[in-house]
Design goal:
alpha+beta, 6-stranded antiparallel β-sheet, 5 helices, about 20% strand
Length: about 160
């Protein structure tokens, strides 16, 4: 995400509170599988996504987009015809495949402008994405129970994801 899209005071607040936020964020995201380096895209099982988005928001961290990953396991291959994508990190039971052919969900900036508080910004974004998970995703023609969700977090570029 272009760091110009969210207000600069959001990133400045994260940097100021990094010593508190970063360890809590790492602990919250233990169930996630990084798609690459950093916090850009962290893959989580569908049933955990809404609560992890909320947890990030409560820390003042914005989740700005959702992407789709097929969780390829022997069971999912038999039930759902996996894989539905290409490449990806391993899991304990198989691996993830990125489903770039499915549209990402991205937050929309508020017409009235961003709130002053980073936490308020994060909660506003969380509400949009949680609503998409609950009310839109189950009705998408591409939806399959094997889909996992990639959470895209807006954090300073200097923050490294480490387990």
């Amino acid at each position: 995400m272009d760091e110009e899209w969210l207000p600069q005071h959001y990133y400045a607040a994260l940097e100021i509170d990094a010593a508190t936020i970063l360890p809590a964020l790492r602990q919250l995201l233990v169930p996630a599988t990084p798609a690459s380096n950093g916090f850009y895209e962290l893959i989580v099982m569908h049933d955990l996504a809404a609560s992890l988005i909320q947890g990030c928001a409560e820390l003042g961290v914005v989740t700005y987009a959702l992407s789709w990953w097929c969780h390829v396991t022997p069971t999912n291959q038999a039930l759902y015809g996996c894989p539905h994508g290409f490449g990806g990190p391993p899991t304990h039971e198989g691996h993830f495949c990125e489903c770039g052919q499915y549209p990402d969900y991205e937050i929309l900036a508020p017409r009235s402008g961003w709130p002053a508080s980073p936490q308020a910004i994060a909660l506003l974004c969380a509400e949009q994405l949680q609503q998409a998970i609950a009310q839109k995703l189950p009705f998408e023609p591409f939806f399959r129970p094997c889909l996992a969700i990639g959470l895209c977090l807006a954090v300073p570029a200097t923050w490294a994801y480490a387990r």
